[in-house]
Each structure stands twice: as structure tokens, then as C-alpha cells.
Write a structure and sequence with these properties.
eleven-stranded mixed beta sheet, Rossmann fold, 453 residues, alpha/beta, GMP Synthetase, Chain A, domain 3
């Protein structure tokens, strides 16, 4: 069945020249007096309803292994991989979002995330399952998204930090903002939100429940969920106290980032070579991918057996069942014989009110193997200086090092170099940081920099 309108006229003429046996009906969404309908003898919604009972029975063709889609990863550290996902994985992930986020048939859902990636796709499926209303965008644009929220009284949307930051910037520039009252549910993925973004989210969307999810394409989206702010139970400011309490416990769990508790269908385990509680994060269950497309693994993943999937992330699970994320194994920085996870350092620096964005990378160094470098984006009304200054709303490498020490960050993890990054960070299509690309750009800028140790 093909559903079109008059804007598809030229494209549809070309389609008519091709023989597509599986295409049985043409549905036209337009006025009944249109010559377009008469010319092509298309079905209007009224005629469609009349003829639906005469359709022959459908013949279903199931993909091998029950596969429903091949979804590509973001490619944050290299070439994107095709991930083969099953019907069961997509269904149970959608059910998990319905149960935890609270999606329902009364929702008006704005598609801020692309449907070519698992985050936008799984949430869209959840919304289809509950029968909600969908507001589609051809491509994300912060201004268009903010306008759509106001125009359609959007109740639910998903974000990544870059999307939220862009929307906050647009809303702050508006004289009046009337869209925030309708939004009730915001699901964030693709990285943790800074305290500043959580604060603005609670101000601009005062009735929303803000939830952050951790997951990956290979697990058909979310593994854990963490409520960052819920207007039903918390007043503005209480959520930040909760975040501060979590931060005070990080010393017990290697200063990781809390990403919440596992979803009902997910099984997680920590594999460590040593006796410590920190190690590789493993998962198994029906949510796990069938395999990578066009690859034959030595041990095929089967959700029905006991095979564990290595997520490639390092973390730990505390006594309350919360997962703490340190970083990715392939993002690990080796400096002076010590292991440094960029996400850990970024989380601490993002707590500084003068920092709007930060990315930590390792740069080759003669003595240390790799040198930790911080690329900093300053918050509005904050000034950058290469020399240490004691004035308010001024940032410098010196006072940022002092800040890291006050936060009890180990000295070998404190960046040796702080760079003011004046342009947007390179992102994937799903809004994740392209560390590999940023690292190349940074090395080009610092090609003449010698070790400062």
C-alpha cells in the first residue's frame, strides 16, 4: 500500500512505470475533486474503507533468525557497524520505555532524533504501541523543534546533550516561552546532561519528568534508566542536591558516572581480571543483537542462551543496584602507566558553572605515552584567560587545575593542557561526540607542542 498526496505527483508518475507486484493499493490524501485522483484511479480514504474487506490474505515472509532491522551504530570511534536486531528485542525495549518513562495514548511525541538510529527508532516504536500522536521533522533544527512544541502542544520528546543544549539556547533567546507547560516526559540518551542543562530543563519544562538512559545499538537501545528530575516529587533545586549526593559517593566507585538501575528485562554483570569491583560491563537477554551484519562471529550471539555481550564499557554496580560508568575501553587514555577514562574527568569538569561543554582526549607524548588534554567551551558570560586570574566569571588552565584537585580528582587524571574550543564539537548524526575526529583536529592544532612535563 502506497500513501501519497499531490506533492508526490512527479515522483509517482515515475513509479507507475515500474512493475512492483507487492504494491496493491494507492491511497491519496487530498480533495476528492482532484484530477490527480481521476487520472490514476487512486483510492481515497472513503473508498479504501469500502475495499479493505476484499483484500486477499497477506503472505508473511520472515527474515532469518527473526531479524526485523539492521540498524547502524553512530560510529563514535570508527566506521559504523550494521547491527542485526530481532523482533523480540525491539518489542521488549519498547515495552520497557512504556513502563519506565510512562508513554501513553494521550502523548503528542516530537521526533527530535533521527529514525535511522536506535534511540529515535525504539522510542518511535514505543509510541506506536501505545497509539500516541506523532509530530515528525525532516531534520532536527532547534528553532523548528521549539516552534513545534508550542504549535502542537508536544508532551514528550527525546534528546541527547547536544539537542538539549541547542533548544535551551533558542528558548533563552525568546521573549516569551509558552511551550514548556505541555511537556511531561523527556528521555535523554547519548551521554549525561550537565548540571547546567538539568537546571535549564527544569526551568523551561517545569512539568516534565527528565530521565536519562544508558545503552547502545547492540542492545537495541536502553540498558539502564535514571530519573534526573521529576516535577511530581521534586522542587527545582532538589534534583541538584540528589546529584550532589550521588557525587559524594563516587569515591567508593572510582568516581564513575551513575547511569541508574537496569531495565526489567536486562541482565548485567561486571567482569574484572582483578579482585576489584570495577570491570567490563557485560549483558545478556532477548534485547541483545543477533549479530553484526555481514560478519560471522566465532561465537554467534543467541539471546536464548548464556552468551554474554561485552558492551565495551567499564563500570561497577553498587549495593543499591545502580550502574556506575567509567568510560569505554577503546577511549582509554594511557598516561604515565595509569589508566584514565575521559568520561570521568569530563563529569567533574562539567560540574563547574563556567563550563558549558568539555571533551577529554589523549594526545601522543614522548614521556607519558599519552597526555590528557581538555577542550573547553565556556558558559555564557564567562571569560577565558591563559593566565590565572582571581576575578569572578573567569576561567583559566590554572584555576581549572585547582578546581579538579578540590574535587579530589587524582593528579595524574588532571589535564596537562586546557584548550578553549571556539567551534562546535564534531558530532555523529545521533549527537554523540566524535572523539577520533576531535583528536585529529586537536593534534593538527598542537603539532608543534612539545611535552610540558
Amino acid at each position: 500500500m502506497l500513501v501519497i498526496d499531490e506533492s508526490s505527483y512527479t515522483w509517482f508518475i515515475n513509479l507507475q512505470k515500474k512493475d512492483i507486484p507487492s504494491l496493491r493499493w494507492h491511497v491519496f490524501l487530498g480533495s476528492s475533486s482532484s484530477d490527480f485522483i481521476k487520472k490514476w484511479n487512486l483510492l481515497t480514504p472513503e473508498l479504501l474503507k469500502k475495499h479493505l474487506t476484499k483484500l486477499p490474505p497477506f503472505r508473511y515472509s520472515w527474515a532469518p533468525e527473526g531479524a526485523v532491522i539492521i540498524c547502524f551504530t553512530s560510529g563514535t570511534t570508527g566506521k559504523p557497524k550494521g547491527v542485526t536486531l530481532s523482533h523480540a528485542a525491539l518489542i521488549i525495549q519498547s515495552l520497557a520505555k512504556i513502563a519506565i518513562v510512562g508513554y501513553c495514548e494521550d502523548d503528542i511525541y516530537l521526533h527530535t532524533a533521527p529514525l535511522c538510529h536506535i534511540g529515535g527508532l525504539s522510542s518511535a516504536m514505543a509510541m506506536l504501541m501505545v497509539g500516541s500522536c506523532h509530530v515528525l521533522m525532516s531534520k532536527f533544527d532547534a528553532q523548528s523543534a521549539v516552534d513545534a512544541i508550542e504549535q502542537y502542544t508536544v508532551t514528550s520528546l527525546i534528546t541527547v546533550p547536544a539537542i538539549m543544549a541547542d533548544m535551551v539556547l533558542v528558548i533563552r533567546g525568546k521573549e516569551t516561552w509558552n511551550g514548556g507547560e505541555s511537556v511531561k516526559k523527556i528521555l535523554n540518551g547519548g551521554g549525561s546532561l550537565s548540571n547546567e542543562l538539568i537546571m535549564y530543563s527544569s526551568i523551561f519544562f517545569p512539568k516534565a519528568k527528565l530521565i536519562s538512559a544508558y545503552g547502545m545499538t547492540e542492545t537495541c537501545s536502553s540498558l539502564t534508566f535514571l530519573t534526573l528530575y521529576d516535577s511530581t516529587y521534586e522542587k527545582i533545586g532538589q534534583s541538584f542536591q540528589t546529584a550532589a549526593n550521588r557525587r559524594s559517593d563516587t569515591m567508593k566507585y572510582s568516581q564513575g558516572v551513575c547511569v541508574g538501575k537496569v531495565a526489567p528485562h536486562v541482565e548485567l554483570s561486571i567482569y574484572s581480571d582483578a579482585s576489584g569491583h570495577v570491570g567490563r560491563i557485560l549483558t545478556r537477554g532477548p534485547h541483545v543483537m543477533l549479530r553484526y551484519w555481514d560478519q560471522t562471529p566465532t561465537c554467534p550471539l543467541d539471546p536464548s542462551n548464556d552468551v554474554w555481550l561485552d558492551t565495551g564499557d567499564i563500570g561497577s554496580i553498587d549495593h543499591n543496584g545502580n550502574l556506575w560508568l567509567l568510560g569505554r575501553t577503546n577511549g582509554l587514555i594511557k598516561s604515565g602507566g595509569e589508566n584514565i577514562y575521559p568520561e570521568e574527568v569530563e563529569e567533574i569538569l562539567l560540574e563547574h558553572s563556567g563550563i558549558a561543554g568539555v571533551v577529554i582526549v589523549g594526545i601522543p607524548d614522548v614521556r607519558l605515552t599519552e597526555m590528557v588534554v581538555a577542550c573547553i567551551q565556556t558558559s555564557k558570560d564567562w571569560q577565558w584567560s591563559e593566565q590565572s586570574v582571581s576575578e569572578d566569571h573567569h576561567l583559566s588552565p590554572g584555576n581549572l587545575r585547582q578546581y579538579c584537585m578540590k574535587k579530589n580528582l587524582s593528579r595524574f587524571k588532571i589535564p596537562k593542557v586546557f584548550i578553549l574550543w571556539r567551534k562546535p564539537f564534531p558530532l555523529t548524526t545521533s549527537g554523540k561526540i566524535r572523539r577520533d575526529q576531535l583528536r585529529k583536529e586537536l593534534m593538527y592544532q598542537l603539532h608543534s607542542l612539545q611535552s610540558n612535563i
